[in-house]
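From the pipeline queue, job 12 of 40. The input is one protein chain; the requested action is below.

Action: predict structure.
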Amino acid sequence: MSTAYKIDEQSGAYYLTLQIVNWADLFSRQDYRDIVMENLRYCIAKKGLIVYGYVVMSNHVHLLVQSSKGELSNNLSST
């Protein structure tokens, strides 16, 4: 995990960009876009993620999000 950027205010709203390694055009395939959407729905339903807006591009995702539980970093981790 990168240490360059940290979420200091866990309950704040953030604009995030998540990119694919080497900017590979992964999300140009419907199956992979569906995986992103399924995981967003899971985080909304089970982890308290509030999504104000998003866009899935061919090789990255933009999100405007906040955590209803004040634990935004936990929403972004795999646990």
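Job complete. Strands lie at 14-19, 49-56, 60-67.
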